[in-house]
Structures are given as structure tokens and as C-alpha cells.
Amino acid sequence: MKQLRRRSTLVATGAAAALLLIPAAVAFANGSGGSDTSLRALGSKQGLRIGTAVDAARLGGDKGYTDIVAGQFSTVTAENAMKWESVEPSRGVYDWTAADQLVRFARQHGQAVRGHTLMWHNQLPSWLTTGVANGSISDAQLRDILHRHVTDEVTHFKGKVWQWDVVNEVFANSWETPQADGLNADDFWIKHLGSGIVGDVFRWAHKADPKALLMYNDYNITGEDGTNAKFQAVYDFVRNLREQGVPIDGIGEQGHLDTQYGFDAQRYQADLQAFGDLGLKVAVTEADVRTFVDNPTDQVPTDSLAQYAQPYEFSELLKGCELVKQCISFTVWGVYDGDSWIPGTFGGEGYGLLYDVNLKPKTAYSTLQQDLRLAAGAPRHTNG
Ligand code: G3I
Questions:
Q1: Ligand 1: centre distance to CA 148 (Å)
Q2: For ligand 1, which residues put their CB under 6 angstroms from it?
Q3: Which of 133, 210, 235, 318 sits in a 20 to 30 Å window from 284, CA-based?
Q4: Residue 372, H or E segment
Q5: What is the pTM of this model?
Q6: Residue to substitute in 122, 218, 336 for testing ligand 1 pocket (most ligand atoms within 8 angstroms of CB)
Q7: Domains (ranges, CATH) in the chain?
Q8: What separation in angstroms does the CA of 169 have from each of 59, 86, 117, 315?
């Protein structure tokens, strides 16, 4: 109890201090006098969309979840519903049901849609991977099938998707084998179709919806793994694409962090800015900050310092985006810890999101709220 009381005093003191820092005109403009303090409302004060990845199947049925998605966020990404295995489970048979539902929801709630993702080695339909593995789909046919997939999906959502993650995760990580151009030699698409496929997919997507913003999306591209090699590879490759006239509009920095590794926020911001200086937009597309927890159900951090490190790193991620004028959106990869990919992928870890397993906002939520409040009135975003 003593600790609880002490904590709420700290929170109250912090909020008061924050208010003192806000000039009166800004405090009025951002509604800190008592109006809308949702993340989306606060983000709009600087033209920055705040987003979440959404499990489309939960919308509507799960009221607590749905209210948070609608009330807190101004952009949504389909966590899985727009991936190839979801939209074309059998060859030639499309199923847009879940993705269309999300797009309708977004329209009803004034949200912009991030389309995710057109070319990725993961979550491919089994008819495709099986056909390639058994030789019944040749590389030439694979290229045609990919062309049709990109064209059909972007056409289906034409005018309804704000940003597309056109190509996802094709660069080599520090533990993988890079080609001379930095692409992952073992990536499914690069292995079968070569480096030139990257530019082609952007061209195909642009042809199908010339107004959508077309992004390259990846993780560890702003020094998160302790080296800047992957950033440099993406930077050089994308600069080259731009010089060739390939219609690429921006970079999606996923932003998957883990408190055990620390985070070089200056490096991150400098790398985002370098992409921006190339004439690209940038977006933080999949932010989460995981840590070790007691069990996957409760997800209570086992290290007491994690309750400070987790919101701190979230805050650094957001502030880096706020400080780079080309950063147009900040998306968190999931709504709450009970529905996050983290425990299923990283044994013993969790607690990565803004809401806990019971859909209650965590310190990371109020920290981001405060960061947005303090930056309100800085209209530097182009948003589109
Ligand atoms: O759809 C099946 C369902 O039929 C089955 O009953 C269930 C049983 O496990 O699995 C369901 O599929 C799961 C799917 O999510 C939909 O829930 C897969 O097993 C599971 O592997 C898949 O995980 C997704 C993961 O991508 C796949 O790589 C995560 O939800 C999703 O958050 C994650 O997102 C990726 C981004 O797309 C790209 N960047 C990294 C990020 C995290 O891995």
C-alpha cells in the first residue's frame, strides 16, 4: 500500500510539472484543460497520426478492445488480415472479408489505413510455398503470380490505403548472409527473383494506386542491434532506387525493442533523419518494448527496473519521430499485452505494449500522452 500511495504521488507530481512546462496558449490549444486527451487527439496537434496494429477478428465482438482502437488511434494496420495467406488462402480465390471489415471500421472512425504487407517471406499461402518447393511453380511463374497479387490487392484497396508496406524485411541481419547490395541472400523472394524484384514491386504497386504512399518496412534499421550496417545497406539501396526513379515514398522503421539490449535513441533519431533527408517520409510502424515477465498470462516484469525502462524506451521511440519532421505516423504493434505476438515468439518475455493483459493503460501509455502533450502545437508534419 505504501508503495502504491507513493507511486500515485509521483504521478500527480509529474503531471503538475508537465503542466507548468506548457505555455498557456499551447495548454489551451491541446485541450489539457479537460477535453480530448486520447493519443489520437494529442497527436493531431502536431499532424502526427498515432496508430495500432489490429486483430480484425476482435473488432465489434470485444467491446473494450474496440473502444480503445476507435478512441485512441488515428491510423490502423491489419496485423494479419492483409497478408497474402489471409487474402488468397486458395489459389485464385480471394477472401477480403476481414480486411474489408477493418477498412470500413477505419472509415467510420476517421482513421487512415496502413496496408501490411505485399511482399514478405512469411505468411505466404501454402499453395504458393508448396508449388515453389516441388517445382510446379517456376521462378518465371512466381514473378507473374507476385505481380498479379500486388496488382490485385492494391487495386482492391485503391483509394482506401494511406501507406502500404510494399516490401517487408528483405535486408540481411547481422546473423544472416548479405549479398553485396545488403539484401538477404536467403530471403525467399531475393533467392528466387533477384534484387531487381524490389523496385518492380514498388512500380507495380504505384501503377495500381498512384496516390498511396509506398514504404519499405524493416526492423533493426536504426542501429537497434548495436551496429549501423543494416541502416547503411537500406539507405544505399533506397537511394539507388530513388535515383532510378522507382516510386518509393518512405521507410517504415518497425521499432521492436527489448529492454535487455538498451537503446541508442540518438542513433535512431539520426538514422530516421538521414532517411528524411533523402526526401523520404518515415513512419514508426510496429513499436513495442518487451521485457522478461513472470508468465505469459499475467506478464508482470520480473526486473523491477523494467517498469521504468519500458515506458522510457517507448518515449524515446516517440520523441525521435516527433523530432524528425518527415515522420508521419507512430504505430504500436498491437493494442494490449494479452494479444501481442511477443510471448509466443520470445520465451519468457512480454509486457511490450501500452495496455496490460486486462486492457488497462500502463505507464507507457501516460508517458506517450505526456510526450504528445508537450509537443503539441509543433505543426511540422506533411501527413501525406
Ligand atoms: O490463423 C491461424 C489460426 O487459424 C490458427 O488457429 C492459429 C493457431 O496458432 O494460428 C493462426 O495463425 C497465426 C497468425 O499470427 C494469426 O493469428 C500464426 O500462427 C502466427 O504465427 C501469426 O503470427 C503473426 C506473425 O507476424 C507471423 O510472422 C503475428 O500475429 C504478427 O503480429 C506478426 O507480425 C510481424 C509483422 O507482420 C512484420 N514484422 C514483424 C512482426 C512480428 O513478428
A1: 24
A2: 79-80, 122-123, 168, 254, 286, 341
A3: 210
A4: helix 363-375
A5: 0.90
A6: 122
A7: 45-375 (3.20.20.80)
A8: 28, 19, 10, 25
